[in-house]
Specification:
Elements (H helix, E strand, L loop, with lengths): L5 H13 L5 H10 L3 H14 L7 H15 L13
Length: 85
Protein backbone atom coordinates (compact mmCIF):
# COMPACT_ATOMS: atom_id res chain seq x y z
CA UNK A 1 0.00 0.00 0.00
CA UNK A 2 1.36 3.43 -0.89
CA UNK A 3 1.80 5.98 1.84
CA UNK A 4 0.20 9.35 1.34
CA UNK A 5 2.64 11.86 -0.09
CA UNK A 6 1.53 15.47 -0.24
CA UNK A 7 4.24 16.22 -2.79
CA UNK A 8 3.03 13.38 -5.02
CA UNK A 9 -0.57 14.54 -4.55
CA UNK A 10 0.28 18.13 -5.56
CA UNK A 11 2.21 16.89 -8.62
CA UNK A 12 -0.77 14.82 -9.66
CA UNK A 13 -3.18 17.72 -9.15
CA UNK A 14 -0.99 19.98 -11.28
CA UNK A 15 -0.75 17.32 -14.00
CA UNK A 16 -4.51 16.94 -14.01
CA UNK A 17 -5.11 20.71 -14.15
CA UNK A 18 -2.88 20.89 -17.20
CA UNK A 19 -5.17 18.60 -19.15
CA UNK A 20 -7.30 20.74 -21.41
CA UNK A 21 -11.06 20.49 -21.07
CA UNK A 22 -11.04 18.19 -18.05
CA UNK A 23 -13.91 18.90 -15.67
CA UNK A 24 -13.84 18.30 -11.93
CA UNK A 25 -15.54 14.90 -12.24
CA UNK A 26 -12.87 13.69 -14.65
CA UNK A 27 -10.14 15.02 -12.36
CA UNK A 28 -11.58 13.16 -9.38
CA UNK A 29 -11.97 9.97 -11.43
CA UNK A 30 -8.34 10.15 -12.52
CA UNK A 31 -7.12 10.59 -8.95
CA UNK A 32 -9.34 7.79 -7.63
CA UNK A 33 -8.12 5.38 -10.29
CA UNK A 34 -4.55 5.84 -9.06
CA UNK A 35 -5.42 4.72 -5.53
CA UNK A 36 -5.51 1.13 -4.39
CA UNK A 37 -8.96 -0.38 -3.80
CA UNK A 38 -9.22 0.17 -0.01
CA UNK A 39 -8.34 3.85 -0.44
CA UNK A 40 -10.75 4.15 -3.38
CA UNK A 41 -13.62 2.84 -1.27
CA UNK A 42 -12.77 5.22 1.56
CA UNK A 43 -12.56 8.20 -0.79
CA UNK A 44 -15.85 7.32 -2.49
CA UNK A 45 -17.59 7.18 0.90
CA UNK A 46 -16.05 10.51 1.88
CA UNK A 47 -17.13 12.13 -1.39
CA UNK A 48 -20.67 10.80 -0.98
CA UNK A 49 -20.90 12.61 2.34
CA UNK A 50 -19.29 15.85 1.20
CA UNK A 51 -20.56 16.33 -2.35
CA UNK A 52 -24.31 16.47 -2.91
CA UNK A 53 -25.38 14.75 -6.11
CA UNK A 54 -28.36 17.01 -6.78
CA UNK A 55 -26.32 20.11 -7.59
CA UNK A 56 -26.05 21.47 -11.11
CA UNK A 57 -22.62 21.16 -12.68
CA UNK A 58 -20.84 23.66 -14.91
CA UNK A 59 -21.95 21.57 -17.87
CA UNK A 60 -25.57 21.71 -16.64
CA UNK A 61 -25.43 25.50 -16.44
CA UNK A 62 -24.01 25.69 -19.97
CA UNK A 63 -26.80 23.41 -21.27
CA UNK A 64 -29.39 25.60 -19.51
CA UNK A 65 -27.86 28.75 -21.01
CA UNK A 66 -27.97 27.24 -24.52
CA UNK A 67 -31.56 26.08 -24.05
CA UNK A 68 -32.67 29.52 -22.84
CA UNK A 69 -30.94 31.14 -25.82
CA UNK A 70 -32.61 28.74 -28.26
CA UNK A 71 -35.98 29.39 -26.64
CA UNK A 72 -35.49 33.17 -26.90
CA UNK A 73 -34.58 32.78 -30.58
CA UNK A 74 -37.72 30.73 -31.24
CA UNK A 75 -35.82 27.53 -31.96
CA UNK A 76 -38.50 25.28 -30.56
CA UNK A 77 -40.49 22.31 -31.82
CA UNK A 78 -44.26 22.32 -31.72
CA UNK A 79 -45.93 19.50 -29.81
CA UNK A 80 -47.96 18.75 -32.91
CA UNK A 81 -44.74 17.97 -34.81
CA UNK A 82 -43.67 15.28 -32.33
CA UNK A 83 -44.60 11.66 -32.97
CA UNK A 84 -45.63 10.51 -29.49
CA UNK A 85 -46.21 6.90 -30.55
Amino acid sequence: MNKFSYKRYRQEVMRIKEREGMNLTAQINTMVEQLEEPEQLLLVELLKRLVPDNVATVEDFEDIRIAEQELAEGKTISFSNINWD
